[in-house]
Write a structure and sequence with these properties.
The protein is built from 7 helices and no strands. It is mainly α and 143 residues long.
C-alpha cells in the first residue's frame, strides 16, 4: 500500500474522526494538552524510534514542543485549525486502537508514522514559523 492510499484510509477512518472530535476539547484545555504531550513522549519512549525513524521522532518532538508552547501561552501564533490538526494527529498517535492496531509487531505503527509525516508536510509553513520563533526565544541578546 502506498503512502497516499494509507493517508487517505487513515483520514477517512472512524478512528481519525474520533481523534478529530476529541481535538477541540483538548485544544481548549491547557492541562489536557500538556497531558497529551506527556502521553506522546511516553509512546515515543515505549516504541523506541531509532535508525531510519529517528528523524520521525525528531519531528514528533517538534510537534510536542508546539503543543506545549501553545498550552503554556508562550506561542499563540498557531492558527486554530492547525492546532486542531496537530492535536488530532497526536491523539490518533497515542491511541493503541486505530486503523492498524499498535499491538501488531512492526506494522502497528505504520499508519501513525504515515499520518505524522503527512501532517509535517501539510503544515510546513506553520512549523517553519514556530521553529523560527523557537530559535529567537532561545537566542540571548547581549547589549
Amino acid at each position: 500500500m502506498n503512502d497516499e492510499s494509507m493517508i487517505s484510509r487513515v483520514l477517512k477512518s472512524v478512528f481519525f474522526k474520533k481523534a478529530t472530535g476529541k481535538a477541540g476539547k483538548y485544544a481548549r484545555n491547557s492541562a489536557q494538552l500538556l497531558q497529551l504531550a506527556k502521553d506522546v513522549v511516553g509512546k515515543l519512549q515505549k516504541v523506541g524510534f531509532s535508525g531510519n525513524l529517528s528523524e520521525f521522532q525528531t519531528q514528533v518532538q517538534l510537534l510536542i514542543r508546539m503543543v506545549r508552547a501553545y498550552a503554556s501561552g508562550d506561542y499563540r501564533a498557531l492558527p486554530w485549525k492547525s492546532l486542531i490538526s496537530i492535536v488530532a494527529v497526536l491523539v490518533y498517535f497515542v491511541s493503541p486502537i486505530d486503523l492498524v492496531p499498535d499491538f501488531l509487531p512492526f506494522i502497528g505503527i505504520t499508519d501513525d508514522v504515515a499520518l505524522v509525516l503527512w501532517l509535517i508536510k501539510t503544515m510546513s509553513s506553520d512549523i517553519q514559523k514556530f521553529s523560527a520563533w523557537e530559535k529567537r526565544e532561545k537566542t540571548i541578546n547581549i547589549g
